[in-house]
């Protein structure tokens, strides 16, 4: 039995103290709370190679019995709302007790930054997000509880770090940590249906952990800590239950409260739910006669979670650095204009292996194997994993099938060219305008200026630069082509949860890119398909999870 708790920890500069302890919500299975500062506002930090702004965090705010694998997501959010003298800024980890001094990258600051923001991104007043899951896990594994991040610039700058635009006070950073707990019972209640005759507990996950033996019911308090005297036993003699002895099933009338049989799993951080259901896959626009390999077909897909954004350089590298020390021998380090731009120039093979690495890093079961029995995880080399070699029921990350991608791209609309309707404009997507060639293109012509943020080549735009579609997904048209699972085949098959052809020579890419004409940004277009080893600076991807497998 599992639940997720979300801890949102907000801190100010190091000179500011904490005020309140976490205040859990009324639902003890959902730990939510904020630490607020007792005084002060964001500072104007003249960060440079000789002066650094920094923040400290305190892991005492996490439930002290939490295990490393239970920390499934940690994201550092940073605001740069004003920059009189913008410069490149790196975010480094700092050791326990480290304080700002006048020397550059002295002992106590990590040499390699967690992320680097370009001067163009700093000057653009952007909200930026960095995946620091591996960093938080590493700190959690040591006895020390305090840790921090330092902001270091490559040259003299004058940058306001932390104030949300329009607000009177600021936040140098927000650290959001998501914890997935197991063996926990919410609200301190059980039902008779959960209990069997004495030694056998029914309807309860009895996996052994370091904190309880198989067959043990564990009760946590509102802060997520184990309450030693409540609902703990070996299955034969549970205590603190309103009956004198466990000689059989306890009448439900003697037990107060209840736990949902199938508690709803919250949507994983950074993903959205694409609901189950039937849709018409393929071209439903009679005027679009140029689409010859996507005849409409009735298709049904099961519900799944999909990344809101194309995988960013920051997210890619956070997994990459873990993967190279854990058996993934040939993953590329990734290319991208900045941490909040999509990673590009990654092959299909690399994306599939990266999905496996992301799964393993988060304690999930990988989806891709090199054998039909699913015993050898795909970690290295160029392997054309077959449909049979995919564990489709695993709780790990994987590439979307072509059907899943198109269902997500349409955003709930039926029979439209694009994720939002039948015409396209550069206010809605990053593509190359050509109004004279396509009646449905409202332009303007040429490259989208949003693609110049962070530099002009390649002309990717920061993820989330445009309005999302009806499912809340960004950049399903334009920015980067996105790898799908399927081999290219025509006609493609519909039906229920199609997985594509069993063999082929080219894998599918969908959605168009920053350099593409508007016709390839159509939801039904299947123009581009490439050998799985192919790489280019217009190609990226996003990942999915099966429903109920966060």
CATH class of the largest domain: Alpha Beta
| Overall CATH architecture of the largest domain | Alpha-Beta Complex
Total number of helical segments? 5
Radius of gyration: 25 Å
**What's the N-to-C terminus distance?**
13 Å
* Count of folded domains: 3
Proportion of beta-strand residues: 15-25%
Q: Mean of residue pLDDT?
A: 75
Low-confidence stretches: 1-44, 165-169, 182-220, 226-264
Largest sheet: 4 strands, antiparallel
Number of E-type strands: 21
Short description:
With 550 residues, this protein is mainly beta. It has three domains: 2-182, Jelly Rolls (Sandwich); 183-260, no CATH class; 272-550, paralog of FGE (formylglycine-generating enzyme), CATH 3.90.1580.
Textual characterization of the structure:
The protein is mainly beta. The protein folds into three domains: 181 residues, Jelly Rolls (Sandwich); 78 residues, no CATH class; 279 residues, paralog of FGE (formylglycine-generating enzyme) (Alpha-Beta Complex), CATH 3.90.1580. Helices cover 9% and strands 19% of the residues. The chain contains five helices and 21 strands. A four-stranded antiparallel sheet has the order 1-11-4-8. Helix 3 crosses helix 4. The longest helix has 14 residues. The chain starts with a strand and ends with a strand. 45% of the residues are buried. The N terminus is likely disordered.
């Amino acid at each position: 039995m599992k639940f997720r708790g979300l801890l949102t920890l907000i801190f100010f500069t190091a000179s500011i103290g904490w005020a309140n302890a976490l205040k859990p919500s009324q639902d003890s299975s959902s730990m939510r709370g904020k630490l607020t500062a007792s005084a002060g506002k964001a500072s104007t930090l003249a960060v440079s190679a000789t002066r650094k702004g920094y923040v400290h965090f305190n892991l005492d705010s996490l439930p002290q019995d939490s295990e490393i694998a239970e920390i499934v997501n940690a994201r550092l959010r940073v605001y740069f709302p004003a920059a009189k003298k913008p410069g490149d800024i790196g975010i480094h980890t700092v050791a326990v007790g480290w304080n700002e001094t006048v020397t550059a990258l002295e002992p106590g600051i990590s040499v390699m930054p967690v992320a680097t923001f370009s001067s163009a991104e700093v000057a653009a007043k952007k909200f930026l997000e960095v995946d620091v899951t591996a960093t938080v896990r590493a700190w959690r594994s040591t006895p020390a509880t305090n840790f921090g991040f330092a902001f270091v610039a490559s040259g003299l700058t004058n940058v306001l770090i932390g104030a949300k635009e329009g607000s009177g006070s600021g936040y140098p950073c927000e650290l959001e940590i998501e914890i997935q707990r197991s063996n926990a019972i919410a609200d301190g209640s059980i039902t008779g249906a959960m209990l069997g005759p004495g030694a056998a507990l029914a309807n309860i996950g009895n996996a052994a952990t370091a904190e309880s033996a198989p067959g043990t019911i564990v009760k946590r308090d509102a802060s997520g800590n184990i309450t030693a005297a409540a609902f703990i036993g070996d299955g034969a003699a549970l205590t603190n239950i309103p009956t004198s002895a466990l000689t059989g099933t306890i009448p439900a009338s003697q037990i107060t409260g209840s736990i949902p049989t199938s508690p709803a799993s919250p949507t994983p951080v950074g993903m959205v739910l694409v609901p189950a259901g039937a849709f018409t896959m393929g071209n439903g626009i009679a005027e679009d006669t140029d689409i010859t390999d996507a005849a409409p077909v009735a298709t049904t897909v099961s519900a799944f979670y999909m990344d809101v954004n194309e995988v960013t350089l920051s997210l890619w590298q956070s997994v990459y650095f873990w993967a190279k020390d854990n058996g993934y021998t040939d993953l590329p380090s990734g290319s991208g204009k900045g941490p909040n731009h999509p990673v590009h120039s990654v092959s299909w093979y690399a994306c599939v292996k990266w999905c496996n690495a992301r799964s393993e890093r988060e304690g999930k079961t990988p989806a891709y194997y090199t054998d039909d029995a699913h015993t050898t995880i795909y970690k290295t080399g160029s392997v054309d994993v077959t449909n049979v070699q995919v564990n489709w029921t695993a709780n790990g990350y994987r590439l979307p099938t072509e059907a899943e991608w198109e269902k997500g791209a349409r955003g709930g609309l039926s029979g439209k060219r694009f994720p939002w309707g039948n015409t396209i404009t550069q206010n809605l997507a990053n593509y190359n305008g050509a109004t004279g060639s396509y009646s449905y293109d409202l332009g303007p012509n040429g490259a989208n200026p949003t693609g110049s943020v962070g530099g002009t080549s390649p002309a990717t735009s920061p993820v989330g630069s445009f309005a999302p579609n009806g499912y809340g997904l960004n950049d399903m048209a334009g920015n980067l082509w996105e790898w799908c699972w399927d081999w290219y085949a025509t006609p493609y098959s519909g039906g229920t949860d199609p997985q594509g052809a069993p063999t082929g020579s080219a894998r599918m890419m969908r959605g168009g890119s920053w350099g593409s004409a508007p016709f390839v940004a159509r939801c039904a277009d299947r123009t581009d398909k490439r050998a799985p080893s192919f790489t280019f600076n217009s190609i990226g991807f996003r990942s999915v999870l099966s429903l109920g497998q966060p």
